[in-house]
């Protein structure tokens, strides 16, 4: 059995603890099971305490999440709102297995050996069929088009330049899966998605610790909010990098149409303008933390091809100034500009008016604090699985010349990874 299948089998078996599986596609991934400490908060005030614990014992990894709403509350300088999920959950694990070509254990060796033993004995409890029915939009098509037009009215009034507008979806469990544990359903979804459309920042996380776990976060995200590598920057400083995504086309049905979709995206003045706007925002965010003159961004974005879509992506990097803190980093970059728009503060206010529902982990951050630095994804292509189904959101950047129907279709293109024909 492959390592990925072992991890999925362990998750499906109601393992207790609080399983965290961060999968890096072809890159760096981690799996952990037994936390020895959990910090839960409704705002970001716990970050200094978490950072002190992390730096005091850097060999013990931390995994968890921040919701989009805890970020916007801090951004807008107001108390957090009541939500179905805590705004901040970070767990310190006794051990984690780093995945990849050269596996290794971080943390306590005995705890690492226990994790390896549990993976080795994990067995997949059921067949390998897909557990979800079709994805359904929870907002009527004309309603979403109307929201796009209202966003454009804010832009025309000079309130903002770009608004990342999302809409909700749900895929309900097939009847034959309804009696199985939610853990098994979530593991089956993530195992299939991870195999078919691997993502550089994918993940499966237990939302509640213990057994049974009734809610799971399932992420198929390709986007990195921030990666910090200690000592890898200029003159031995700490290197910070972000990879904002803006600009999307669905994959073509054949090589010719797929190549045409790539070329259309790369030539699109509208998509390039959207992309440059967000890259400038990220450059400004990182500039608040950077050594003077160290911020770098490419002149043009790269084309990145995923199993269901093509994207425009740029790497923005800098060397952090000495003495940076985790709280300062999050204040500067979170929530990510690609999932708000520009300018960030005012646009976040308009998003609340237009969407009228919490995003939760979606568009927040999935966080890993590691011995050699940290990494945070932006959990796009992400949903929460519970006893009723998989609850998703999807969106895109709205600008003055956006076509409302094209924007609606783009939302669908981005949730295709969670559909099976």
UniProtKB/TrEMBL annotation:
Select a single GO molecular function from the record's annotations and give it. 4-amino-4-deoxychorismate synthase activity
Spell out the Pfam families in the cross-references.
Chorismate_bind
Question: What ranges does the record give for the region Disordered, renumbered to this chain?
Answer: 239-259
In terms of InterPro entries, this protein maps to: ADC_synthase, Anth_synth_I-like, Chorismate_C
Query: Which terms does the UniProt entry file under GO BP?
Result: L-tryptophan biosynthetic process
Q: Which residues form the Chorismate-utilising enzyme C-terminal domain?
A: 141-414
Write down what this protein is called. Answer: Anthranilate synthase component I family protein
